[in-house]
Amino acid sequence: MSINRLREQLKNLRMPGAGVKLDLRLSEARCNSLEHGDFLELLLQDELLHRAGNKIRSALKAAGFRNLKPLADFDWQFNPNLERKLFYELAGGEFIRQAQNILMVGPSGTGKTCLAQAIGFEAIKLGFTVIYRSIFDIVSHLQRFNALSDRNPEFERYLKADLLIIDDMGLKQLPEKAGELLFEIIFRRHELKSTIMTSNRPLDDWGKLIGDVPTAGAILDRFLQQARLIPFKGKTGRPHFGRQGQAGPTANDALLDAAAAARLDHAEGGSL
To answer: Which GO terms describe its molecular function (predicted)?
Structure first.
C-alpha cells in the first residue's frame, strides 16, 4: 500500500493525529526495524494523544479560565504562608470525587485566584468538567437569562459541572437577588458536586455583600457542611510564575501535550 493511500485511509477513518505523524513513524520503523505491531501501537498512541489534546482544548475553553498558569509554575516564595503540600493534594482531585467544597479566604493578591484556577486545570487533566467564573459574571449571566424561571440550560451548566469555581466573592457588593441565585446553586450542588469559592472579605461580611443576611447565613451553612476552609495570609501582591505562557486556549503546544498525556494516562488507568 502506498503512503498516500494509507494517509487517505487514515483521513477517512478520521484519525488526523495518526496522519500528521505518519511520515515520522514510517521513518522510525525503517531506522529501528520495528515490528508491525510496534509501528501500529505508536501510530495509535499518536492518535489518542491528538484526541486527548483536543479534549483538553475544548475543556479549557468551556472552563473560561482567566490568565491561567499551571500549579507547577507557581512561585511558592511569593507567599511563604501557603502550604504547598495541601494544594498538590487538592490537585489530585479526591475532594471532587467526594463532592467536597473549598473556601479560600484572604486579602486580594495573595494567590487565591491563581491557585483555584491551577487546581481547576489539574481537574481537567483528570477528566473532570470545570467552570470558572467570577461571582459577578454568574449573577449577571443568570439574571439575564431569568435562569430560575424554568429548567434553563444556562443554569444547568453551573449545576452539572464536576467543579465550579466561583471567584471574587467580596470584591464589591452584589446586585439585587444575587443571594437567591447563589443559594440555589449551592443548594442544588450540595453533596453532589464540588465548588471552590474565593473571597477577600470575612464571612461575617457576606450578609452586607449579598444584601440579605439570612440568605448569606443559609448559603454559608450549606456550603461549609462539606467544605475545607483555607485562609490566605500575607502581603497583597501578585503571584509570580517560573515560566511564561498561558495555559488556556492559546497555551503553548508543549504544555497542552503534557496535559493530554496526563489525561490519557489517567484514562488508561481507569475511568472516573
So the answer is: ATP binding
Q: What angle do CA 65, 70, 74 make, to 5 degrees?
A: 115
Each residue's pLDDT, cut to its tens digit, for the chain (272 residues) gives 578 888 888 787 788 877 777 778 878 888 888 888 878 888 888 777 877 778 888 999 999 999 888 898 888 888 888 999 999 999 999 999 999 999 999 988 889 999 999 999 999 999 999 999 998 888 888 877 665 555 677 788 899 999 999 998 876 677 777 888 888 899 999 999 999 999 988 888 887 777 778 888 888 888 888 899 999 987 666 665 554 444 444 445 656 666 666 666 666 665 44
| Domain extent for 43 | 3-61
Quick one: 190 and 98 in the same domain?
Answer: yes
CA angle 116, 121, 124 (to 5 degrees): 130
**Residue 208 is assigned to a structural domain of this protein:** yes
E-assigned strands of the chain?
101-105, 130-134, 163-169, 194-199, 227-231
Do 51 and 124 lie in one domain? The reply is: no
pTM, full prediction: 0.75
Tell whether 33 and 158 lie within a shared domain.
no
In a domain? residue 89: yes
* C-alpha cell read off for 128: 473532570
